């Protein structure tokens, strides 16, 4: 018999429940409101009183209303059919919800329980298996979705039988396993897992050794994100966090994308809803939506469910990782999640930390980021969860608690700078403040040597030095005036502008410029570094300015041209010509 | 508010603070309305039998034996077509005489539109102001505030935008508005003959501040009636949201909540989002567009109110007086409309995005030249030309008293480009320059 209880207090979305039996922390319960059942989670227990946060409006609730405890934590349902769906933070299928408005207490099934899937067995009778072992597979969109031994199974089991190839619904028995005591367990295609507990069905979590290609030049070239790595994008509003994340979600070299819209604008999610079913994944030719799952808990949806949404996204990601797939999770924005924690902590009257955030904010964020990673599965295959979150620092100040806590946890830092956004230098990733720790990993250096070219990371660092030197030169020019500095300062500054305009700036709304494959990035960086290595002579700073402005203009046209098209070659020649003329002009003068 | 027969009357209040009272009253629902000594109040906390009520107009004069009557329902607004042309207070009661509106009583602050059922905003709202149409195009279903210092003419600009935009209904939510400003709006709308399209919910500075908290929900409930039920294009004007946030802070403070940044409640983001996210493009063709005002203190946008607002809204508009031309302009650097990408170059002429960017870039170069000049450095020929360009750009395009359609704005921009610059300096895609660069 499940524990029941009665409402004895209501403070906004926190309800105090007098329980008549045992209650677990984070246990799910339903508060009855007329015919509706409002879902809630236990967040504190004092004596018989359970403090539950309701994932819905508490308007109209009364003292004495009935509460039913469920005996389990907040769970997601894992089965074939997750891809291309749009869930809310509690895994309700938004597409199936009826009516224009989301009515209180409405629930929908996260899966289609009647759909049939073409099953192919992978395990056979007598095999020894454990949690996460692949028993068979079904084709979900174009992904081979593995049917696994449920993650909740502890220890070793022996396969007694596996269903033969054929069509099955997700609730049919696909295998029977025998445990050490000889007890039989049926396995179906569907299992449930509590979102706050990491799925650990892997053997080892090594250091990342490859990069996740995104087609975004300031990321791939300058500060690459590793596959199985973590990164975050802090930036004041208007700096282009969302545009950048959308670009990555469209272009990233991943098998599965999980997009968590956490406490952000609904219109932005609508953009994804509208675009993804139409856009093609350039690598597979399939629609982007087919590899995507959207978890959508926009800013006006209940705050408590916002907190759940990032965990729901992560758990689904870990599920696909256990199938040996490359998963990329994008969360926009993790600050909204932290704010949800703050609202909750505030209502519980906990002693606050900095800016009224809960004291354990840093630990919560670290634990969450730690769930990402590359893993080796028991069958030797690799799977990965790469996590990239945005942070919306209050007042654009990076010294606030959420940014600082995330900085401790994430390995890549893509700082969006207000100054760059103001001068429309998009993406506004600050080339000096941003970093990728992965460039220091010998595994990654070695990988890039092979994937791009020998000595690539040295070239990247050279470009970074040029940018830094350019910035210093610019400061000098600003202080002393154009004529007050030697012309070399202008040369130094304009070389960094060349890198800025050609590599760092990228037009996310242009079909070609938006997505630059690594081969093209290699070509661009090499071309630019060659020009930067030359020493030109100028009669005055204006000549220097004009020369680079001309170059930048041609390079911009080049960036808009199809790779290796006629236009592309034409602009390459123009660049070569312009550089040559400048060099020979200088020689003539010297002579 | 008439009392009904079955309502129970309580006459023993236990605690009275500046804004709240608590009493023992079993069987009361959360968020329910009540009348306390003739004043409207709402349940904000229930603990066992003890109910805490927030009195909107303050607890002055409430005594421990004042009558407390529970209404058994949350705040509602009577909606019908008769709302149009009327002026209401924060409770949805007609001001300046007139009868109470008959109609369906709807709970204010109702549920959220399922994001999956929304349409992507795609219809441009033309205002004739280049700082908006050209640089920061607004679309239906968008939410965008003016970030303005109190001395700037934001209410005037907003009234102008509202009248030029071809909206079926304009709903004004005034919070902490001075009576003069309220009369200004009324006068402008009356003069334009637009009064039958306007619904106003107004809390002026003469009214108690906490009452303001009801205004946005009232205005948006009316907006949802016209947009959802009638399929109309509704424009909601909310001024001033900083005053709304101040009222939130007052209540949070009196409820002993721990304040976060700038003494604002920790839930400020969610509170504001609940309002702004009502902006929507609906499948039936109806839409709610919100244009709001957030007043700044000394231009500080890092303050919690503008900061949280910026993260919620789809851009922001800044007004500035251009010192060279003496005109009020929409600042091209700091203003942003996030949804412009959905229409520019698609619903407008193909050259729109690039012309917009090039003009802003050249205007930025002018700003740099100006800095140089101020620091006593010599200007190059290019610098001189950017300064001349900036003057014309500001006077002929950005000034808010200029009123023209978008194609004329683009043509004007091309003329200015050709007048002051070479094609290399303008650096737009070549095929567009070939097509639009003025021939003579």
CATH C-level of the largest domain in chain B: Alpha Beta
At the fourth level of CATH, the homologous superfamily of the largest domain in chain A is P-loop containing nucleotide triphosphate hydrolases
Structural shape of chain A: globular
CATH topology of the largest domain in chain B: Rossmann fold
Tell me how many strands of chain A there are: 25
- The SS-based structural class of chain B is alpha/beta
CATH top level of the largest domain in chain A is Alpha Beta
- Number of beta-strand segments of chain B: 21
| Percent strand of chain A | 15-25%
Give the overall average pLDDT of chain A: 93
Largest two-chain interface: A-B, 74 and 82 residues
Please describe the topology of this protein.
The complex is a heterodimer of chains A (591) and B (440).
Chain A: E1 4-11, E2 14-19, E3 27-33, E4 36-46, E5 49-54, E6 66-73, E7 75-78, E8 86-87, E9 117-121, E10 128-129, E11 134-140, E12 143-148, E13 157-162, E14 166-168, E15 175-178, E16 184-187, E17 191-194, H1 217-222, E18 230-234, H2 241-251, E19 256-262, H3 266-275, E20 292-297, H4 303-321, E21 326-332, H5 334-347, H6 361-369, E22 373-376, E23 382-391, H7 401-409, E24 412-413, H8 418-422, E25 435-436, H9 442-451, H10 456-480, H11 487-504, H12 511-514, H13 518-533, H14 541-559, H15 566-590
Parallel strand pairs in A: 8-20, 18-23, 18-24, 19-20, 19-21, 21-23
Antiparallel strand pairs in A: 1-2, 1-6, 2-5, 3-4, 3-6, 4-5, 7-17, 9-11, 9-14, 10-13, 11-12, 13-15, 15-16, 22-23, 24-25
Helix pairs in contact in A: 4-5, 6-7, 10-11, 10-13, 11-13, 11-14, 14-15
Chain B: E1 9-10, E2 13-16, E3 20-24, E4 33-36, E5 39-47, E6 50-55, E7 68-70, E8 76-79, E9 87-88, E10 104-107, E11 124-125, H1 130-133, E12 138-139, E13 143-148, H2 154-164, E14 169-177, H3 179-191, E15 198-204, H4 215-229, E16 233-239, H5 241-254, H6 268-276, E17 280-281, E18 287-295, H7 304-312, E19 315-321, E20 328-330, E21 336-337, H8 352-374, H9 381-398, H10 406-420, H11 423-426, H12 430-436
Parallel strand pairs in B: 9-15, 13-18, 13-19, 14-15, 14-16, 16-18
Antiparallel strand pairs in B: 1-7, 2-3, 3-6, 4-5, 4-7, 5-6, 8-10, 11-12, 17-18, 19-20, 19-21
Helix pairs in contact in B: 2-3, 6-7, 8-9, 8-10, 9-10
């Amino acid at each position: 018999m499940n524990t029941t209880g009665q409402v004895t207090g209501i403070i906004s979305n926190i309800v105090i429940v007098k329980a008549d039996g045992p209650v677990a922390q984070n246990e799910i319960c339903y508060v009855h409101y007329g015919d509706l059942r409002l879902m809630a989670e236990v967040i504190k227990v004092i004596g018989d009183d359970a403090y539950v946060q309701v994932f819905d409006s508490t308007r109209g609730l009364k003292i004495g209303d009935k509460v039913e405890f469920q005996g389990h934590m907040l769970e997601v349902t894992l089965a074939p059919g997750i891809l291309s769906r749009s869930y809310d933070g509690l895994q309700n299928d938004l597409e199936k919800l009826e009516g224009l408005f989301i009515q209180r207490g409405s629930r929908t099934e996260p899966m289609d329980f009647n759909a049939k899937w073409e099953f192919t067995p992978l395990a056979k009778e007598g095999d020894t298996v454990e949690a996460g072992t692949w028993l068979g597979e079904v084709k979900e969109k174009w992904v081979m979705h593995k049917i696994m031994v449920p993650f909740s199974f502890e220890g070793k089991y022996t396969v007694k039988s596996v269903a033969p190839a054929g069509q099955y619904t997700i609730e049919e028995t696909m295998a029977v396993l025998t445990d050490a005591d000889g007890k039989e367990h049926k396995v179906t295609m569907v299992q449930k897992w509590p979102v706050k507990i990491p799925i650990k069905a892997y053997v080892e979590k090594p250091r990342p050794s490859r990069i996740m290609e995104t087609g975004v030049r300031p990321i791939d070239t300058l500060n690459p994100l590793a596959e199985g790595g973590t990164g975050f994008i802090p930036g004041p509003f208007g700096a282009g966090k969302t545009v950048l994340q959308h670009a990555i979600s469209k272009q990233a070299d991943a098998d599965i994308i999980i997009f968590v819209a956490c406490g952000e604008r609904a219109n932005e999610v609508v953009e994804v809803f509208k675009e993804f079913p139409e856009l093609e994944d350039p690598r597979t030719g399939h629609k982007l939506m087919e590899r995507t799952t959207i978890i959508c808990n926009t800013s006006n949806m209940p705050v408590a469910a916002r907190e759940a949404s990032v965990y729901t996204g992560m758990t689904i990601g870990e599920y696909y990782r256990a199938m040996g797939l490359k998963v990329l999770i994008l969360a926009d924005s993790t600050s909204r999640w932290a704010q949800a924690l703050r609202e909750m902590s505030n209502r519980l009257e906990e002693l606050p930390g900095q800016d009224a955030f809960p004291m354990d904010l840093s630990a919560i964020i670290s634990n969450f980021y730690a769930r990402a990673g590359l893993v080796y599965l028991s069958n030797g295959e690799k799977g990965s969860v790469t996590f990239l979150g945005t942070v919306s620092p209050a007042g654009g100040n990076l010294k606030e608690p959420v940014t600082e806590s995330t900085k401790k946890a994430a390995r890549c830092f893509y700082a969006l700078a207000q100054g760059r956004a103001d001068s429309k230098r998009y993406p506004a990733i600050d080339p000096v403040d941003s970093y990728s720790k992965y460039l220091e990993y010998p595994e990654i250096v070695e990988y890039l040597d092979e994937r791009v070219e020998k000595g690539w990371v040295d070239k990247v660092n050279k470009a970074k030095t040029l940018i830094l030197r350019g910035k210093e030169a610019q400061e000098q020019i600003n202080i002393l005036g154009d004529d007050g500095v030697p012309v070399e300062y202008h040369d130094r500054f304009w070389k960094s502008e060349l890198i800025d305009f050609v590599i760092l700036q990228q037009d996310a709304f242009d079909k070609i410029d938006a997505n630059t494959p690594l081969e093209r990035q290699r070509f661009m960086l090499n071309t630019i570094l060659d020009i930067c290595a030359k020493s030109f002579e100028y009669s005055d700073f204006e000549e220097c300015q004009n020369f680079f402005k001309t170059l930048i203009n041609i390079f911009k046209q080049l960036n808009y041209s199809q790779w290796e098209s006629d236009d592309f070659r034409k602009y390459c020649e123009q660049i070569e010509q312009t550089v040559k003329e400048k060099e020979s002009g200088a020689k003539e003068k010297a002579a | 508010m008439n009392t009904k027969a079955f309502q129970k009357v309580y006459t023993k209040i236990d605690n009275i603070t500046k804004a709240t009272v608590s009493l023992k009253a079993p069987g009361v629902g959360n968020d329910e309305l009540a009348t306390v000594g003739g004043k409207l109040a709402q349940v904000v906390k229930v603990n066992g039998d003890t109910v805490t009520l927030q009195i909107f107009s303050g607890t002055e004069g409430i005594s421990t034996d004042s009558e407390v009557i529970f209404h058994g329902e949350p705040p509602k607004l009577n909606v019908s077509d008769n709302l149009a042309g009327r002026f209401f207070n924060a409770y949805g009661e007609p001001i300046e005489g007139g009868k109470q509106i008959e109609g369906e009583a709807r709970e204010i602050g109702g549920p959220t539109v399922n994001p999956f059922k929304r349409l992507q905003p795609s219809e441009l709202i033309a205002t004739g102001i280049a700082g908006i149409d050209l640089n920061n195009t607004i679309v239906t279903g968008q939410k965008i505030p003016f970030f303005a210092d109190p001395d700037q003419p934001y209410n005037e600009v907003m009234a102008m935008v509202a009248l030029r935009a071809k909206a079926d209904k304009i709903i004004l939510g005034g919070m902490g508005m001075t009576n003069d400003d309220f009369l200004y709006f009324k006068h402008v709308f009356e003069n334009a003959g637009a009064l039958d399209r306007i619904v106003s919910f107004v809390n002026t500075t003469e009214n108690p501040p906490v009452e303001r908290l009801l205004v946005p929900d009232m205005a948006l409930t009316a907006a949802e009636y016209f947009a959802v039920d009638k399929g109309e294009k509704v424009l909601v004007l909310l001024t001033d949201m900083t005053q709304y946030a101040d009222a939130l802070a007052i209540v949070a403070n009196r409820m002993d909540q721990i304040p976060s940044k700038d003494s604002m409640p920790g839930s400020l983001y969610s509170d504001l989002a609940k309002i702004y996210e009502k902006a929507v493009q609906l499948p039936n063709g109806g839409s709610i567009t919100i244009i709001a005002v957030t007043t700044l203190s000394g231009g500080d946008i890092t303050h919690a109110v503008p900061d949280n607002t910026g993260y919620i809204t789809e851009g922001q508009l800044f007004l500035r007086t251009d010192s060279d031309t003496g005109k009020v302009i929409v600042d091209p650097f700091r203003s942003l409309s996030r949804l412009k990408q959905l229409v520019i170059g698609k619903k407008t002429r193909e050259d729109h995005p690039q012309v917009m960017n090039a003009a802003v870039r050249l205007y930025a170069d002018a700003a740099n030249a100006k800095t140089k000049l101020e620091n006593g450095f010599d200007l190059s020929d290019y610098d001189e030309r950017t300064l001349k360009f900036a003057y014309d750009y500001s006077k002929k395009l950005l000034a808010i008293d200029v009123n023209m359609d978008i194609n004329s704005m683009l043509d004007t921009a091309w003329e200015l480009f050709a007048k002051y610059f070479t094609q290399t300096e303008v650096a737009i895609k070549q095929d567009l320059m070939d097509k639009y660069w003025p021939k003579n």
